[in-house]
Amino acid sequence: MGTVSGRPGMQSTGQSPAGRDPKLLDRVREAIRVRHYSRRTERTYVQWIKRFIVFHGIRHPAQMDKTEVSQFLTHLAVVKNVSASTQSQAFNALLFLYKSVLGMDIGFLEGVVRARRPRRLPVVLIPQEVKAVLDQLEGISHLVCILLYGAGLRFLDCLRLRVKDIDFVRNEITVRDGKGNKDRVTMLPARAKEPLEAQLARVRRLHQADLRKGLGRAPLPDALLRKYPNADREWCWQYVFPASTHYTDSVTGVRHRHHVHESVIQKAVHEAVRRAGITKPASCHTFRHSFASHLLENGYDIRTVQELLGHEDVKTTMIYTHVLNKGGRGVRSPADSL
Fold first, then answer.
1. 200: exposed, middle or buried (C-beta count within 10 Å: 0-12, 13-18, 19+)?
2. What does the alpha-carbon distance between residue 223 and residue 325 come to, in Å, rounded to a whole number?
3. What is the CATH number of the domain that holds 173?
4. Could you tell me which of 30, 110, 155, 291 has the fewest CB atoms within 10 Å of its CB?
5. Residue 261: active-site member
6. pLDDT, tens digit, for every residue of 39-50?
7. Could you say which of 68, 83, 118 is where a domain stops?
8. Catalytic (active site) residue 36
9. Which pLDDT score, from 0 to 100, does residue 52 have?
């Protein structure tokens, strides 16, 4: 779908080498990078825009409007049976396309069949189950899960931690550009300090070896890299949990050492849950759910838990009040009085 060209007569964001308007998807990528969205968001938006174009017979989006957008979103819900969050993701991608790339206002969408958002309670482990799973983990996987449970970090926020985000003096972890592009501060668990210091010592040796080979570069936001061209080689910007190999950036051609891939930790946790004999469908994110629930069980104020989790609305945090380990919301069954 990269062959779709810019809309005739519209002012483009740049020129192709041949002097023509840049291709549509190149314009989408440029608009995303100007706004400093993540590469993950870029890939997701481009993929949804491609699917939208293919769904309508490879018509240019500028030749369509809210009618075609509504048809596509309804198709996702009715035929593809996607979740509500997936449908919202597709809508956000198309809204960005029309508003930020094509400069078109598609207005209010009418007649869209909304995917149903199920009311599901989060999976929560009791402390004994958390310990049982952690006992089955080792190395980086073990340390990552301690931070997920001990600090309430989101999984990707944990993997994206840089050296500068860890403050051993103040016992704090700073999450940069978290969900909603917001920063927040959470605690550094005392149990994680010693293994985290050992991990950083290993990473520093690895980084120094990379530098001697002419490598040692970590991916940085585009704007920061333009302002400080050598910052990606500095120790403070290296990932706390780096990957074992380098990769070549498809945009810049630079060889980077990214953070460890999510699947490495996910597979380790899945296997640890199985070996621990836990029958709950626990995953990496379950540690964050357990963090919140156990804090509330221990009497901490829900507003404090909300701030540590980085929830914008306290209603999101309140879901954990329904999974506290009190059985039937603390009500004593009359059968227990017989």
1. middle
2. 47
3. 1.10.443.10
4. 110
5. no
6. 888 999 999 999
7. 118
8. no
9. 95
